[in-house]
Amino acid sequence: MTVASLLKQQGYATACIGKWHPGWDWPLKSGGTANDEGNFSGGFKGGWDVDYAGEIQNGPCDLGFDYFFGISASLDMPPYVYVRNRTPTEPATVEKAFQRKGSAAAGFEAVDVLPRITEETVHFINRKAKSDTPFFIYFPLNTHTHTDRA
Questions:
Q1: Which pLDDT belongs to residue 35?
Q2: pLDDT, mean of residues 20-33
Q3: Mind spelling out the 3-state secondary structure of the chain?
Q4: Exposed, middle or buried by CB within 10 Å (0-12, 13-18, 19+), for 147?
Q5: Listing from the earlier edge strand, what are the strands of the sheet with 13-19?
Q6: What is the number of alpha carbons within 13 Å of residue 98 lying toward its C-beta?
Q7: 129 contacts 13 by C-beta, under 8 angstroms
Q8: What pLDDT is stored for residue 22 in this prediction?
């Protein structure tokens, strides 16, 4: 049981918006899944073997959260993509290196992560504030910040 699943049982709408670092299972183009555990720069070919159209398993939406938006790990760990619920919002088609080289969505920039997850959180609050349903947001911030675009 997680805080989110407990609150969900009590009628809360739950969201995780931000960085989800615990390993989740990424679908692979070669079949099956692989757990990142912070090792995308090595065992996952920098994220190039990920099926970005597939659904990620064992993430926030499998652990009690109704909604997730954010990144899979710290900003030094590819793949550099946003994920909504169980699916990346855009495929990784380019290589970028914020600290480690790896696959990235063309529109993903590390400098934009904190403003983007904050914006998503405000939108969630505004939507839920119009309802009588209580809500809970877990808002883990990204750990690495960059002042310039890579």
A1: 73
A2: 82
A3: CCHHHHHHHCCCEEEEEEECCCCCEEEECCCCEEECCCCCCCCCHHHCCECCCCCCECCHHHCCCCEEEEECCCCCCCCECCEECCEECCCEEEEEECCCEEEEECCCCHHHHHHHHHHHHHHHHHHHHCCCCCEEEECCCCCCCCCCCC
A4: exposed
A5: 87-88, 83-84, 67-71, 13-19, 135-138
A6: 25
A7: no
A8: 73
Both structure tokens of 101? 């080289």
Answer whether 101's CB lies under 8 Å from 41's CB: yes
* Residue corresponding to tokens 């615990």: 22
Contacts of 111 (CB under 8 A, 6+ apart): 145, 146, 147, 148, 149
* Residue spans per domain, the chain: 3-138
pTM of the model: 0.87
Phi, psi of 137 (to 5 degrees): -125, 125
Q: How confident is the model at residue 60 (pLDDT cuts 50, 70, 90)?
A: very high
CA–CA separation, 93 vs 52, rounded Å? 10
Q: Which tokens in the block code for residue 112?
A: 């934009």
φ, ψ (nearest 5 deg) of residue 136: -130, 130
